Amino acid sequence: MVTTELAEGSGSSATTSSADVHVGSDYHPSLYNNDLAPLVKQKWNWYNIFAFWMSDVHSVGGYVTAGSLFAFGLASWQVFVCLIVGIVIVMLLANLVAKPSQVAGAPFPVISRAPFGVRGANIPATLRGLIAVAWYGIQTYLASDAIVVVALKLWPALKPYSDVSQHGFVGLSTIGWGAFILLWIGQAFVFWRGMNAIRKFIDWAGPAVYVVMIVLTVYLVYKAGTSNIDLTLGSIKYSGWGTVGAMFLATSIVVSYFSGPLLNFGDISRYGRTMSDVKRGNLLGLPINFTFFSILTVVCAAATVPVYGKLITDPIETVSRIDNTFAIVLGAMTFAIATVGINIVANFISPAFDFSHVAPQKISWRTGGMIAAVGSVLITPWNLYSSDEVIHYTLDVLASFTGPLFGILVCDYYLIRHQHVVVDDLYTMSSKGRYYLHQGRQPEGRDRDRGRWRHRPGDRADPRRALQDGGELLLVHRCRRRSPGVLPQLAVLPRRQPGRQGDQQLRARARGHRGRAGLTPCGSGSSTPTRRP
């Protein structure tokens, strides 16, 4: 059972003019602003969640990533299976990460205060913000390619300026820079209008791409002829476990692609009216929507072989080869607009929350978003998505950071806290708060009211310990299940003091506890629980 507690009798304070948020009387100014405070009115329904995933799936990045799976040498049907298996995993993970934010009405950085501490949460927030900046730049670059295609089709004289070797700067051509900056400004404009404008934008952006992709697929199938479409495009012949290994890698690429939106999904689910609305939107927007997306991707890619003589996985390049100028302009602009929509929702909103979380009273949501926008240019994202190999490497690196943050948050919420969130304690600097640290750990080894061991990751003088504490939190939960008697004694062990003397003191203290309680190592068997001395 999920329980969410708010302080009784606490209403909105004078520090906020919005009736949509709750501000407790003991909320510390350094821990909240109007954008970070918990929502009271959550207005998004299942279609808004569905439209979010529709825009995410049908972005240029989604098609490019899905098409890159053919680089493994898999047949089309094998790529299709990998896409479906991967998206089912994504849906299950999305449901897990959505609940704490939807229940509390708070974004990811605030929810992270539970496992990391009210100050230590700045670490995962900053890491996630940097990851989102990378994704924001990548998606902006991919969408800008569509603008380049339109410009070259309408003004062929600009073609020399699309050559990086002749007219380029840090790996991007002159016309590429123009398209990138144009989209950069357009996205910033939509973002500046606020969440309501963003929600309305994505409600139609995703379906618009559906229409274009259906028309494009029908056109290619008509040009190729159904009898000429071969779904066995794999260039490498796998057998036995080799096929399984290649498909496993392809599936992991799908999950890695969605690792960013997954980690950011709490920022969206907090607006959901109910968890049922969120789950329904996830079901329609991920496995069902993605199945149709996968069919379009595989058939469209397979049809490019007989039509153009080679496999083309980038829909922008496919559209650019159409003879009709109007079709090129319409298709390319639709892809660009749809990618702008998901880029704002998935990769602009999250770093805005993250950077605002570091200094809520000094960095507003809009300021945090503009910091992310500037950073997206400095990382030169076109160099991160330049080929299939680089795409896979980029996804692996980004997922290696998002995976641990996702795992710690989900495990803490479901396994350690059993879906119990005290919202007001996420915003207080009181030493009595559940998510506040005293000298690195909660001094009481057991919760006297509940009779259970309780651990609070740290935040005060050294917030770097928050990551260590998050890992310890999961280890301790594993120990409690296998050897319950270990925990009361572990809870009172002090942190190691610097130097050899501190090590000796800690080992002596640990030997003393094991000698009195007869404790065994974690997982080696059960032991008799003992009380604290």
Automatic annotation (TrEMBL):
Membrane topology: Multi-pass membrane protein
Regions of compositional bias (Basic and acidic residues) in chain numbering: 441-465
Membrane-spanning parts: 49-71, 77-98, 133-155, 175-192, 204-222, 242-263, 283-305, 325-346, 367-385, 397-416
CDD domains listed in its UniProt record: SLC-NCS1sbd_u1 (cd11555)
Residue ranges, compositional bias (Low complexity): 493-507
Region (Disordered) residue spans: 438-465, 493-533
An example Gene Ontology molecular-function term: nucleobase transmembrane transporter activity
Xref: InterPro entries: Pur-cyt_permease, Uracil/uridine/allantoin_perm
A single GO cellular-component term on record: plasma membrane
Annotated compartments: Membrane
Pfam families according to UniProt: Transp_cyt_pur
Ranges of biased composition (kind: Polar residues): 523-533
Membrane in keyword set: yes
Keyword terms of this UniProt record: Membrane, Transmembrane, Transmembrane helix
Family note: Belongs to the purine-cytosine permease (2.A.39) family.
Protein name listed in UniProt: Allantoin transport protein
Organism in which the protein naturally occurs: Acidipropionibacterium jensenii
Native organism taxonomy: Bacteria, Bacillati, Actinomycetota, Actinomycetes, Propionibacteriales
Name of the gene this protein is made from: ybbW
